[in-house]
Amino acid sequence: MRRRPLFWQIFPVSLLISLCTVLAVSWFATTTFKTFYYDQMVVDIEARALLLEQKILDLVLDSPDALQDFCRQAGRRAHTRITVVGPYGAVLADSNEDPQRMEKHGKRPEITKAYSGQTGSSLRFSTTLHRDMLYVAIPLRLSSADHADKTGALRLSVPATALNTVLGTIRNRVVLASLLTILLAAVFSRQLALRISRPLEEIKRGAEQLSSGEKIRLVNIHEHGLSLEMSGLIISLNRMAEQLMERILLTRRQHNELEAVFSSMTEAVVAVDAEECVIRLNRAAGLLFRIDPQIGKDKPVQGMLRNPELMEMIRGTLRNNNCAAAEVELFDGQQRTILEVRVVPLQDNEQQPIGALMVMDDVTRINRLENVRREFVANVSHELKTPITVIKGYVETLLDGGVAAHEDGNKFLQIVLRQAGRLDAIIDDLLSLSRIENTANSHKTSLDLALKELYPTLHAALQTCKLKADEQQIRLDLQCPPDLKAIHNPALLEEAVINLLNNAVTYSPSGSSVFVRAESRQESGKKQWVEIAVEDKGCGIRKEHLDRIFERFYRCDKARSRENGGTGLGLAIVKHIAQSQRGTVEVESHFGRGSTFTLNLPG
Ligand code: ADP
Hints:
The chain is an alpha+beta fold. The protein has helices at residues 6-62, 64-78, 109-115, 161-211, 228-264, 283-288, 293-296, 301-305, 308-320, 364-400, 406-441, 455-471, 490-506, 558-563, 570-580; strands at residues 81-85, 91-94, 120-126, 131-142, 150-159, 268-273, 278-281, 324-331, 336-347, 353-362, 450-453, 475-479, 485-488, 513-522, 528-536, 584-590, 594-602. The protein folds into five domains: 7-167, PAS domain (Beta-Lactamase, 2-Layer Sandwich), CATH 3.30.450; 216-260, no CATH class; 265-359, Beta-Lactamase, CATH 3.30.450.20; 368-437, Helix Hairpins; 445-602, Heat Shock Protein 90, CATH 3.30.565. A five-stranded antiparallel sheet has the order 2-1-5-4-3. A five-stranded antiparallel sheet has the order 7-6-10-9-8, sandwiched between helices. The two termini are 83 Å apart. Residues 194-249 form the HAMP domain. InterPro entries: BphY/WalK/GraS-like, HAMP_dom, HATPase_C_sf, HATPase_dom, His_kinase_dom, HisK_dim/P_dom, HisK_dim/P_sf, PAS-like_dom_sf.
């Protein structure tokens, strides 16, 4: 059904009511006035007739001619037609016409009434005078010999023009007044309709603005001269709107807080309903499963997870309404991710199950670190255990007194001393590593990084290794511009270069050369780097070891390393020093032809 605005429901109805009232009042007023005026005229004419009555009676008895003359003169003076009618309708005299030629008037309504002894009146068109006339007749008691006990009639008539004119004027005025009243009624009806509909319109607009969050009050109650009921309604609605707005704001704030917490969680969270469709998922979950959190909503969770183990956990929780926890491995064809997964039932306010909530923590890195730690402890234990076992064995032999010859005892003690030195070297390297790591992790400027000349540092490193190199008849060659600068900590850089030089000397044949070259390298449009390369022409490293030689305790040839007093920690220390100086280290090696280790430092 088509609905009309309230204004168009009120305005036409109230206008129609006003219109009907005005028309009824106009009709009633016109009719009443017409009757009143007519009666007044009848009374007036009747009075005139009564004044003439006696004179007429006398003349009727005396002489018909005198009667006719009197009627003619009196009628002319009074502008009234005077007709005297006999008992049988014959006209005895008439002020305007010759009574001989006039037809009988006994059937005229006013005459009939007069015959019955009452005053009769009639308003009608006169065929004699050809216009509207008002006739008033009174009874004439004729008591002559001829007309004994007979009743005639004295009729006076005046043109109805005056009556019609007055009535016409009155009608015009009433019509004018009615039109004015209708106009006013229309204006007032409109005002009334607007007064009722406008506040409701305002309330509607206010409610719309309220729902869109633009406003917190519906209508200003001081406007429009509102009725008591309307202002009461508005006060109640305003109060309700304010409370509603407070609740909306509170809910919105809580929602935002929850949203912020939810989306900034590092754990991936997925909430699913009883039909296994996603209710919500956070950013971490979106990243993990490579899906937009908004797009993922309301979609089946199976298509998103694509993992039977995770699906089974969710289904178990939905089925049994219990919690589940497990470590699940994801493999997307490129990388492996280990997740610590917990699934709990999702409940509504009445503690009714409505779905499941799955929280996934990426523990890949922690697992890897844990493995590294475990491996490291095993390696350290193994590295320490070997010399300790040797030392213990020889010391026990010495204590048992099983060594007779003095030289043997000396030899044993030499071995014990060498193994103790080895232990010392391992512990020194471990301490060194731990110190560098701690310094790098503390992010302090205590590392004392500064842009300084490299030459003194490299020269000092060469000097340290020179003795060992000379012993093996290996030549050390330094190529470094004296003004070349790099951001570095001299003590740490010296330690790194000494480690690289020691390895180069260790793994080079005697008579060969080891080169240390430092040069600046400008990357196009990027920052400047300084490369420090330590190059030897030694045994080189097989390709398969290159990826791992910077790991702690990794050796390509364990026996040879031990024989040379290596700890397997030298390159790990170099790597950590490079990182602590915001640089890198890389290796290039050809088995049997030599190796080049390059330190890159910011210039
Ligand atoms: P190590 O104390 O055994 O030298 P490092 O960490 O310094 O331990 O080196 C790891 C391994 O890398 C060594 O055991 C060795 O096999 C290999 N290596 C390092 N530097 C060189 C080099 N210049 N030439 C050949 N092999 C090298």
